[in-house]
Design brief:
79 residues
Length: 79
């Protein structure tokens, strides 16, 4: 796992408070109620602060950023 991937996993774990998301990286975070709208915004702010990558909440549909793997892919596309 790349350093970027590890950092994103750590951010998601920190924001959701769920260690399980580190192992189940294709789990739907919204469906499992680990992320809601406010937590998603918090994650986007953390991504901007950590990587300098700005992703507006309106840029992607929820199902395009609903798993750890999809979040990693979106950030890496922007780097």
């Amino acid at each position: 796992m790349s350093n970027v991937s590890e950092q994103i996993v750590d951010l998601v774990v920190e924001i959701t408070g769920e260690d399980e998301v580190a192992d189940e990286r294709d789990m739907d975070l919204f469906e499992e109620e680990y992320l809601d709208s406010m937590a998603a915004i918090e994650l986007l702010v953390a991504i901007k602060d950590t990587f300098g990558v700005s992703i507006a909440p309106t840029e992607f549909e929820r199902d395009e950023m609903n798993t750890v793997n999809k979040i990693i892919a979106r950030v890496q596309e922007r780097m």
